[in-house]
Amino acid sequence: MHVHRSERLWIFFGVAMLAVFLGMITTAAVVDGLVPPSRVQTIDPTKVSQTPPFDHPGLHKIADNVYEAYYVAHIFSFTPASIEIPAGARVTFYVTSADVEHGFSIPETGVNTMVTPGWVSSVSHTFTTPGTFLLICNEYCGSGHQLMAAKVVVK
Amino acid sequence: MTAASASPRTDEPFALSRAGGNLLALTHIYTSTLVLGIGALFGLLQGFSRASLITMPPEFDYYRMLTAHGVLMALVFTTFFITGLFTYAVYETIPRVRSLALGWTGYCVMLVGTVLTTVVILQGDASVLYTFYAPLKASPLFYLGATLLVLGTWCVAFDLIFNVIWFKRANPAKRIPLPAFLAVTTMIMWIIATLGVVAEMLLLLPWSLGWTPGIDVELTRMLFWYFGHPLVYFWIMGAYTIWYTLVPTTFKGKIFSDALTRVAFVMLLLLSTPVGLHHQYLDPGVSAGWKWMHTVLTYGVVIPSFMTAFAIFACFEIAAKRAGKRGFLATVRWLPWKNPVFAGPACGMLLFIPGGFGGIVNNSYSMDVLVHNTMWIVGHFHITVGGPVALTFIGASYGLIPALSGRKLFAPKLALIQVYTFFVGMTIMATAMHWAGLLGSPRRTSDVSYMGAQGAATWHPEMLWAAFGGTLVALSILMFIIVATGTYVANERPEVPPTFEFAPTDEDAMETPAVLDRLGRWAVIALVLAILAYAGPVSGEIHAHAYLVPGMRTW
Asked: Shortest CA distance to B423 belongs to which of B359, B341, B348?
């Protein structure tokens, strides 16, 4: 099958571009650990309030500027509703849902993950600038979805 | 719609069955037109609601309307148009002698499914959006209606496939006519893809009836997106069929290459399905390795789109050269921009350039974190399915409705204004949506003020722009409805019936290899690829012994 020379060039250019993109994101994944949140850990969604550590959701200090935050998403709020951390803190969020599918997103940071009942999601972020960050549910979860928000205060 | 006397080819032996086929295809297309009108009205209300210009009354709340808009536009409008187009493509190029029964059965089952689903949504018993993510639990009738819609398309698909098989048996040495080949390749892809959503329905239906205590949420999500991405390619392949085979007719052009068109569609058949995990990059419970695999495969499915871009522009250039026009600007000026049948798909192509690149961003693995579930995604699918696909279908309708009904197009100037109004409106709306998404505005949310929270305020101006663009789009769809209805009502039948014929292939094009026509073989390879891409994630999901979730109604 004969393929026109300029078309071969065009396809070569297209494939080369895709190869460069793939190389970049793969390098970022391997070298910098930039992979999408993909934690594989199950939890009984009907017993979230009795399962540690989600029976006591909230912020835990691990070391200087290192925190773990456990969140429960339920219609139509997050627990805890607000946390306070110092600027420069690295926080690892662990989130699960007590009812339906939710989202967990802090706009304009890299914090964004789905929250699926039966699973624990995890995502980390270093908060460098002080301010009050809005934490929202970004997956439709029912009639009060637009109210489902919390705060992260960086001092 | 008495199209029996409207066939342009009454002198041919198969005229009667062809006219019957015309009526069938026309009914599909008019149904898609009606659905587009209803869906656009709901879309307009949402745009205004999100821009805080109106408040939706409780009996038409935002999420109910959003569900109706998504289901009607993404699942119903597109599907009816495509089944109509492909019915035309097969019946027009393969003279049929057999019954229309399977085709009409398909149409009726699709229609029953659509009506059932729409009624349940408007009653408020299925505000689960068009993705119906479990454990949001809709009325069982919603899942039943959606299943019927899919089963109806299978009837249509098998009708078309049987016709091609009979053609091949009668003419073993001949190649399948190109339009029929494109139609059947797409429908085979569609059957493979919809296996996922039908399997999901087999889990959801008994669960919604209370027969099973809980549902494996991650498994249903995987099955949904196994179907959800090839759904996108179903739309695109419908639009590409028009770009390749019908658009050249508007300037007496020829198809650039029969063989390469088939190669592109075989690639789309193979690579459309094993890519769905790129919609689930942010899902817990799916390992990062499988997500990366699907990133690579999704990049692969970009290649036939590059080939299409080349072929379409080459087709323009060659036709312009034959007419004595040389150079880029001369070619562009020479093209029939005043013919809505050309202008619709052509404006669609322009929108697909940023739309396609936006898709590459979404697919880029970790980069998805920045845009996932933001308005960027809404902008993306409005500048792809809402722009190129819808504009192509509308433009083609201006050619198909007259050809199938034997009627003269009503108010062709209005049709032309419609195309450009849509193009401008969608450009404004989709740009604003993309921008709002980059600022972090979430999708699928009725009100994004978050009680005046800092940051959320920056999203509002973009929503006003989106509502403005959306108004233009809705107005243009109203124009489209006027033209489509007017063509029927005015019932002006010219002596020489209007035609909309498939373009011939360029005589310089090479011989098409016979292997491309072995669609059975390609279908098996496509299925194997899909199984390979999903065996790992699905078995991982099963081995994780995920908890079953009871589910609830939260609206």
From this structure: B348
Contacts of B218 in chain A (CB under 8 A): 116, 118-119
Q: How far apart are alpha carbons B271 and B520 in whole angstroms?
A: 16
Cα–Cα distance, B34 to B40 (Å, whole number): 10
The CA distance from B467 to the nearest CA of chain A, in Å, is 19
Q: Which residue among B263, B314, B440 sits closest to A107, beta carbon to beta carbon?
A: B440
Residue entry with tokens 């290459």: B257
Q: Is the pLDDT of residue B11 over 90?
A: no
How far is the CA of B50 from the CAs of A133, B387, B444, B466, in angstroms? 22, 21, 10, 9
Q: For residue A40, tell me if it sits in a domain.
A: no
Q: Cis omega before residue B537 (within 30°)?
A: no
d(CA B21, CA B18): 5
Assess A36–B contact: CB distance below 8 Å, yes or no: yes
Q: Sort out which chain B residues have CB atoms less than 8 A from A37's CB and list them.
A: 282, 284, 369
CB of A31 closer than 8 Å to CB of A56 = no
Range of the domain at A3: 1-35
Residue B3 has pLDDT above 80, yes or no: no
The ipTM, to two decimals, is 0.95
Domain identity same for A128 and A68: yes
For residue range B177-211, list pLDDT tens digits in order. 999 999 999 999 999 999 999 999 999 999 999 99
Q: Find out whether B45 and B68 touch, Cβ atoms under 8 Å.
A: no
Read off the pLDDT of residues B21-60 as tens digits, 9 standing for 90 and up: 899 999 999 999 999 999 999 999 999 999 999 988 888 8
CATH code (residue A54): 2.60.40.420
Sorted by where each begins, the domain ranges of chain B are 13-447+454-543
For residue B167, pLDDT over 70 is answered with yes
Q: How far apart are the first and last CA of chain A?
A: 66
Token pair 């009668």 in the structure block, residue: B170
Residues A121 and A64 grouped into a single domain:
yes
pTM assigned to the model? 0.95
Residue B336: partners with Cβ closer than 8 Å, 6 or more residues away: B250, B251, B342, B343
CATH among 1.20.210.10, 1.10.760.10, 1.10.1040.10, 3.40.50.620 for B13-447+454-543 = 1.20.210.10
What are the start-end ranges of the E strands in B13-57? Answer: none
What's the angle, vertex CA B99, arms to CA B98 and CA B103, rounded to 5? 120
Identify which of B433, B443, B435 has the alpha carbon closest to the alpha carbon of residue B372: B443
Distance from CA of B416 to the nearest CA of A (A): 33
Give percent above pLDDT 70 in chain B: 95
In B123-248, which residue ranges form alpha helices assigned H by DSSP?
A: 140-170, 178-208, 217-245
The C-alpha atoms of residue B234 and residue B229 are separated, in whole angstroms, by 9
Query: Are A137 and A148 within 8 A, CB to CB?
Result: yes
Q: What is the DSSP letter of A72?
A: E
Amino acid at B450: Y
Q: Do the Cβ atoms of B194 and B146 come closer than 8 Å?
A: no
* H or E element, residue B365: none
Q: Which amino acid is at B235?
A: W
Token couple for B487: 């063509």
